[in-house]
Amino acid sequence: MSYIHNCIRKVYPSKEDNKGLFEKTTQVSIEGRFFNKLHVAFAMHQYSDFWNRHNLKPFVYSISKVAAISLVLSISFACGEFINSANAAYPDSNPTYTDWPINKEALNNGGVKVENLAKEGGYYYDRRITGDALDNSFGWIWGTTPPQQSEGEPPIPSQLKITILKTQDWQRQKDGKLLDFSGNDWSGNPNQATIWIAGGLKTIFGASSSQLAAATSTTTSSYPYSTTTNKNKLELKLDTGVSFLAKIFGGRNDLGGEIGANSTNENDVTVNLSESSNFYLKIAYGGRSAQLDKVTGLVHKGFETNSNTVNFSGVLKDSLGNEKKATEFTDGDSGQSSLLVMKGIFGGEGYESSKNIVSISNSLVAAGFSGARKLGIVGGRGAYYFRINDSGNLPIVKQDSNGNIEWADQSKLLPELDGRRVNTDLVNGEYSSLANGNIVTIDNSYIGYVEKDKVADGKTTNRNDWTYSDSEKGISVYGGWAIGQAKNNIIAVSNSVINGNLIGGLEMKDQLRSDSQAQLRKLDANLVSLFNTKLEQGSSIYGTSTADAYAEVWTGVIRVAEGTLKTVNRRRGGAYIAGENEADAAYVKYIHFGEYFDTNKIKTDTKATEDVTRQYYPGLNSETTDDPESLVRITSETSEEDGAAYKMQLGDLVARSYLVNRTGFHSSLSNRSVTGQELGNVSDVTNGQHNFWVGMYANLVKGVDGNGALFDPHKDLFKNKETYEVRHTYGDGDLPKDQNLSLLVHDDGMVYSFKDGSDTLASPNDENSEHRPALMHNFRYHYDGLVLYVGANPGQISVTDDKGTRIESINAVQISFSEIEKFREKNDPTVDAFGNTFVGVFLEGNQTPFYKDSHKNGFNSLDASEMTFEPIGASGESPFEITQHGSVVAKATYAFYKYMHFDGEDASWNNSLNPDKEELIFGKQTGKGTSGGVGLKYWLKSVDILDGETLTLNGATSDSILGTTSNIRLQERFTLSAKLTGKGNVRIAEGTSVVIGSPKTIYTIDVNKSDATAKVVNFKTQEANSFTGLTIVGSQATLVAGIDGALGSDTSHTASLQLGKDSSFYLQNHKQDIGHLDVAEGAKLNLTEAPKLENINDANATFTYEPDLGDVGELVVHNTYRPNSENLASNILGNIEGTEDSKLVIDTGRANISSANENFLGTFELRRAEGYLHNSNALQKAKAVVSQGSSLYFHNAGELARTRSVDPRSNAYVGAIQNAGQVFLSGGKDEVAALNHVNVENGYAGQNGSVIHYRGLVQGPDNSYVDVVHSETATGTSQVSFGDDHSKIPVSGIFKEARGEKTLKSEGIPIFVIADKGIEGDQLRLEMQPFGVVAKDNEAYKWIYSLGYNDEEQGSQRTWVLYNSDDKDHYEPLVPPKEEENLVLRPEAGAYVGASQSWAKMHMRLHDRFGQAYYIDPFDGEEKPAAAWVRQVGSHSHFRMAGGQSKTHSNTAVTQIGGDLLRNEFNEDWKYIGGVFAGGLYNRSDSRSWDSAKSRSDGYSLGIYGTLYTGNSPDDGFYVDSWLLFGRYDNKIWSDEISPFKFKSHGWVWSVETGYTIPIGESGTKDYNKLIWTFQPEAQLVWDGVKANSANDSFGTKYRQLGTDNVTLRVGARLHANYMNKGLGFIEGNWIHNSKKAGVQMGTDKVYMDGGRNLGEFRMGLEGHLSRNTLGWATVGVQAGKAGYHNETAQIGIKYMF
To answer: What's the rounded mean pLDDT across residues 642-661?
Structure first.
């Protein structure tokens, strides 16, 4: 109390008790002046801290601000002794200006070292400056330089360098913290702690605002102001442990009298903070230009404040002095770090504030007051004393002839200023302010840091205490801020923590309010770039923001009331996201992942801010734009420092570059809070509206880890929801196989499953939610493929309110597509994406994104080409690289859905902010508490395996968790649906199960035969794979074919299928070609059945395998595998299984079967191949088909034990034999034990040319041992051979020890025993050339053995035997007479020739296309310039082949259309015509011999023609006509015996024709019956080059066309009867000669058509006008030749003459 008493005694001396002073007096006298005691109390109250210490309850009275300040300063002056005594008791000081250094020398000696490094540079210091009309400054330092010596000499900017060596005693402190106090003492002297510093300063202290506004120079002032406010440099450094308080400017210009001259450009501020230093910064400006504060009436439109820079650099260290990252700091533990406490940092502030840069690095930055959250760090602030050029209800803005703008009519009253805008036209196109192309960079810094030991704790209300409220301790960052336009501003942040919003640009576009959706501003693009940055809770990313506000009158100026600004929820501008990032939300239009701006390079990259809108955005011109140099796209080549760890690669769950949206991914634009943050500063104009990102782009690296062995893609996106730790991999193991999904899961996204039924989803107002087959619906609601998540939310958030802090569950995703679509239709009609978000993919090294624009049919489209896209390499190659075990093994093509993925299910929710009001909307939503996110839908479409590499497919095992799905079959998890190409190998991992091929994908939908609206979906046959490497099935592995051609097509397939020990291959009744087959012991080859895969059920109770079975199980082995430059034989040591319809075909080469295969009931077919059976039961139940040129060897005996007691020969078993080649009944050594009894269960069928090879000991009836066939039935004809040449002795198949003995036919040596010989005419006939065997007793003689048969007298058995004597005991046996061969021609020959002959029906003659080819209009004699024509031809032909063995009928239809393109004349005598034509053909042929066959041909031709003639038309004299066509035809042949097969034919045909018209005479005497008779000889040559591709039928017979390159000669004449050029009739006769005979080669046999080379032809026809310009004609004709050949033709034609 004594301190107060002492002070009061000085103020008002009295002998009374001071305790009752205020109760007993009404006035106080101070220095002779009287003051109201209440005013004194208020002034004393300003020292609230002192007042509170002494438990004196403060008085709060309502007095003017001016009076209060005056009293405070007066009392301060008068009570100096009181203050000093307080200082003695309390170390915290409240210094006056008298405590400041008195001059520059004292300033430097006191630890403030000031230099000006400019030429002759100096500085001005004054501790007591008064009269700052625009600020409350008192103490100043600014740079000075000599004035200009001449008018043209540029001014010299300052280079001010200031080092603070120690904390200054004259700066006010409290509890060790500097306080921002400014004011006057009782005598008006400055009492402050803050010093103002400027590199360059132009002002007039003591002048009024109006005087400053009119001033053009500082010459009227006594202060030595700077010569320029441009290009000045201010460098400020705080030494270790120093605290300092200042307000700093690179340049400040307050003069407003000359527009264009008083700019504040290119200034530079650099602040370096040392360890443990604390910089208390009121505000920093790179440059601040005059804003004509408080000036009314006409003013300049503003000044430049451009290209200024502000750089803050600090130190981050822990308490031990070790370096520490900004992201590792927690509030209140700054250690030995520097601290920047600020109230604002502006790169520039003025009317035009563009291209400024603010840079903060290695700093902890704390908010100095609560308003920093709204406007803390700004690259450029376009503010002109908050004037606004709003042409709404504000008074009309005027402009005078000098360019001055009257911003507001001051006569208007404030209540009228509601700010509602009625149009969008700016007055004279001027913005009230500009902030374009500014940059803010923040690197390794914590913005919004809290250090309560150095900044007040927020509980005090004293504005001088650097305080903030607990809920608004953050600092927001703006790239640009303007009441007018803010465009192309960029914030680039890396490795930092931001407690505040990041706003690329805020612009009001000179529009105070937008009270409806129709009035929403069209905003410019700005950008936020984040790299490894965390925005604290309550902080969001805004690409471009805007705000609504009201107007106010402030110091007489009508302007925007800053306190009424409310953010409008919009999604505009862009964001680049790289590394690990957190924010409440990202309010942007376009967002990029995997790229960011380098915070250092961008400062000098002028291209970065030219245009942040990329030309490839939807609706723009899609041109490539080069990246700025400072833009970093993270690729596989990126260094660790630049973010290699954050590359985005397919196969990850959450991408390495991602964003955690703490409030979720919601489309709502309503003003609502999910974090507990107060949203009173957010406008409600967009309440109820919805929008989301328009485009999302991802930068992908080409590498894909292919080592994964996991199968469940449904994993929580977070490892730890509380700490927002995301899950990048699908598993947590140490090895890649335990971290990543198997490649077999990568292609699940292409699998298509539509099941029409009653499961319509629950959104009747969102028509896309209706269950329907369209791809958009399938991808949105039924997609079960992979997603590379770029955004994630855990479904919960920490909420702090009056109830405390708690975790609340939220919807991670809540998107209403239909509401978004409505919003965009009104505000962004160029975005036609049905409420979706476009996606684009950048591949490393390519600056052009891959994407797909919206398609008008997108809502109902079933066409994958309209809804998906596939990135490709620079040369069209597959761009992605699959890596296994450190090596690239394959190139891959991944496809992407063109719209972004949103997690969730179809749902509805209340769109109203009023809980009592229900406004249901519909969309997609995750459940509360469930993690969710957004990302790229992608799938593996094809794999190109590199030559020499092996792609390992990790299949499912008994331990594999497949997860659950209701959208696709669970087996798709281990099915490879992607196409396999390339020259490398495929390996099925040991002990795993893999299916290759899925029949129903988005690519097999037959778009032409499907209708999404009718819910009809049909599929095409899945295209076969085409890889040519090995297929290696590891031991105990299972490989399943899901489609025909799973391992390749008939022309391009796996080189070898190699089944490891105990492995399995299930063909599932499909067709498959392979180059080689190797089946290890214990392995299984099943051609027809499906695997049970029961082991997979062990870990998946709901799994049931659903096989995709084919029509017939056929495995064709081509034996083309040449590992050592030689074709390797196929080997089967394991088992073959298959039903009766199955086929194992060996097409060329050799196959060895060494296993018993009792479960193989199908066919083993050899096509030009060799089959070796090393097991007696190799084909026990199977049918062996030995085609021409093939050989079947029974080599089983060598593998059997030699313990036969009676008959030493072995036994072999086979289901049936169909032999057109050669069957070797035994092999191995020439010994009896190696011979065979071949037991044919069902029957033997021999075909022409077939041979059965025998071996044995041929002697007598009782001591001979030869191979024997035992067959239930036998048909056909076969040759029996005991060796290559039966004329030699011994024959090679007869053992050398054999000695001939007399053998009667009835006792002959059995070689073929038939249980049921069959009916006559259908019995087996064996033929053999007799051979000799040396006689047993006389080796000079030989026995000649022949072949015959014996039939049972009572039974049906027939036994073919070898014998050398008949039953009449002739010594020499008789050779049985050889029967005539009965060759029968197959009917396919005629069908083939019928097809090949039909192609010539495309030939034509001049009159076929023109009729009577005149061009004179008979009605008026006018010559017609051109004509168009069409003709329809039908023909029937009949021919025979091979001497009448087959007869063929063909019916052909041809349609041709053409027209003249040019018609001109060389001279009066010669004219010419040129034109084009096209045609279509359809032919059907039926051929019959002993059976019937049919063929069909259809195709088209395109051609040109030209005619040279004399007269008015080709029929007036001589003509030469020529035409050339190209034809292409599809052909098909089928019969009862063979399956249909197809082949193509194509080629050129050329014709030249000539004729001459000879007038004969006229008949008739009147015009109406007058006929003109002419005779026209003709000749024509036609070369036909149409050729057919070779074809094979199901028997393997190869077809080749004979008679190609045929030349047809036609010679003949026409007789015309012309009725006045209006109609005619004609007859015609021709001789036709063909240079080649038509035929076909089937295998090695050549068959030709009978007749047809020389033909006679007769034709007749009529022609007449159908109208004046339309001519029609009809023709019939017949051709006839030898051997019954004939062809009848009828045609009609129409010609239109122009």
So the answer is: 96
